[in-house]
Amino acid sequence: MAFAESLQRRLTSGLEALGLALDDERQAALLGFIEELQRWNRSYNLTAVRDPLDMVTRHLLDSLAVLPWIGDGPLLDAGTGAGLPGVPLAIARPRLQVTLLDSAGKKVRFLNHVQRTLGLDNVYPVQARLETFALRAPFATVISRAFASLSEFAAAVHAMHRGAPFAAPRLLAMKGRTPQAEIDALPDDVRVEAVERLDVPGLQEDRHLVIMSLVT
């Protein structure tokens, strides 16, 4: 019980620092996600973070720190892995439609389990690579914190979007330090709109969000 209270206190204080008012049901869902992640991590090795308290900081609060830049339209979380940042964003914003895309079957199995267990009707796990994902409807935003470089992220979104009769989405790339070398290496058809500093409560590391658009 004491440890559960510690998790709740860390989440509550982090949400307050982020200026987020989430009701008890959504907070319970966030902690339920961490519980499932910890349980499945023993066998599936979904994340290198093992301590649930660290999971609250490094996974929940880190994901929720980008909420001010998430619009109302459908969101694609590319290379979502264990569902980050997509699952916390979907819990915090129940009306936000979130597609969780990953090429690893074990991760998608976990995400399907989370969707069922937590009753997340706005979450859609899909097993596919971003560059070969069959785009059937427009996304307002594509977000990722897993791609190796900004150029690779933009190229994969370009490939996915090629031939689609939809407007190109915004691209949000979650990074540590400002990736200036990666920004300088971007091709001319990718425009950096802004680089925002993310203040993640309890995380003593640099975190930034690179906001990009595709020039079509």
Outline of the structure:
With 216 residues, the protein is α/β, with parallel strands linked by helices. The chain has helices at residues 2-18, 24-44, 52-64, 86-92, 105-118, 150-161, 180-184, and strands spanning 75-78, 98-102, 123-127, 141-144, 170-175, 190-197, 208-214.
Question: What is the element layout, followed by pairings?
Answer:
Layout: H1 2-18, H2 24-44, H3 52-64, E1 75-78, H4 86-92, E2 98-102, H5 105-118, E3 123-127, E4 141-144, H6 150-161, E5 170-175, H7 180-184, E6 190-197, E7 208-214
Parallel strand pairs: 1-2, 1-4, 2-3, 4-5
Antiparallel strand pairs: 5-7, 6-7
Helix pairs in contact: 1-3, 2-3, 2-4, 2-5, 3-4
Describe the structure.
The chain has one domain (2-214): Vaccinia Virus protein VP39 (Rossmann fold), CATH 3.40.50.150. It has a 7-stranded mixed β-sheet, with helices on both faces. It contains 7 helices and 7 strands. By secondary structure, it is of the alpha/beta class. Helix 2 packs antiparallel against helix 5 (105-118). The protein is 41% helix and 18% strand. Helix 6 links the parallel strand 4 (141-144) and strand 5.
The level-1 CATH class: Alpha Beta
Secondary-structure arrangement, i.e. CATH architecture: 3-Layer(aba) Sandwich
Poorly predicted sequence stretches spanning 5 or more consecutive residues: none
Separation of termini?
Answer: 54 Å
- In DSSP terms, counting alpha (H) and pi (I) runs of 4 or more, how many helices? 7
Element-by-element helix/strand order: HHHEHEHEEHEHEE
Strand order of the largest sheet: 3-2-1-4-5-7-6
Q: Report the helical percentage.
A: 40-55%
Shape: globular
Strand content: 15-25%
